[in-house]
Amino acid sequence: MYRYKGFDSALCGGSMAALEAIVNAWMEGERPRIRQMSQSVRGQHIILSFVYEDTHELEQRIALQNPATAITGGYPRFFEDDTVEDRPTNPSIPATPPPMH
To answer: Which stretches does the entry tag as region Disordered (predicted)?
Structure first.
């Protein structure tokens, strides 16, 4: 489910450093999966808008779909412990790419 979060520099006394600190704290704490971001100007202030997915919700959905991924924190393993030699080969895919002309 997508969510919306907005930040207004007016609430930070117009301080860009304070606005950055608030946005960074939110990103570090929530770890959102940002889908869209926009910046608007209202008078002398900046408004930052984010449309995002809550990663906690996303991890729960993934864990419910595949309980095996719950062990790895909701993220599938990309790198297996086996080596390249242990993997089956596909003869239709060449081991080396053809030379570029």
So the answer is: 75-101
Amino acid 66: pLDDT? 74
Residue 61 pLDDT more than 70? yes
**Is 10 a residue whose pLDDT tops 80?**
yes
At the second CATH level, the architecture of 2-72 is 2-Layer Sandwich (3.30)
- The CA–CA distances, whole Å, from 24 to 1, 20, 27, 62, 96 equal 22, 6, 5, 26, 44
DSSP for the chain, written as a single string: -EEEEEEEGGGGTT-HHHHHHHHHHHHHHH--EEEEEEEEEETTEEEEEEEEE-HHHHHHHHHHH-GGGGGGTT---SS-SS-GGGSPP-TTS-SSPPPP-
pLDDT digits (tens, 9 = 90+) for 41-50: 999 999 999 9
